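C-ALPHA CELLS:
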Amino acid sequence: MSYASVWDAIADTPEQAANLRSRAELMQKIADRVKQSGWTQAEAASRCGVTQPRMNDLLRGRVSRFSLDALVNIATALGCRVRFDLEAA
C-alpha cells in the first residue's frame, strides 16, 4: 500500500492524519524558534510556562504528547502568532 505521507500511514482516518501533520509542523516551528533564540531547554520552558521535561518532549518531536491547543499556547508564549491555512485537498 502507498501513502501520501507518514501521517497517512500511521493514522486511522484522514482527520487524524491532518491533526498529526498540523501538530508536527507547529512543533517544528516552535523548535526552530527556540534554536534561533539560543535558549536552553530550561529557559525555553520557563518562557512557555512548561517544565523542562515537557520542553524536551516538544524538541524531540514527541507529537503524541501535545494537543494543538497546547502547542498554540506554547507558540504564543514565545511571541509567535499562529495561523492556519485551509486548502482544498
Summary: Helices lie at 6-10, 14-37, 41-48, 52-59, 68-77. Residues 24 and 62 are 9 Å apart (CA to CA).
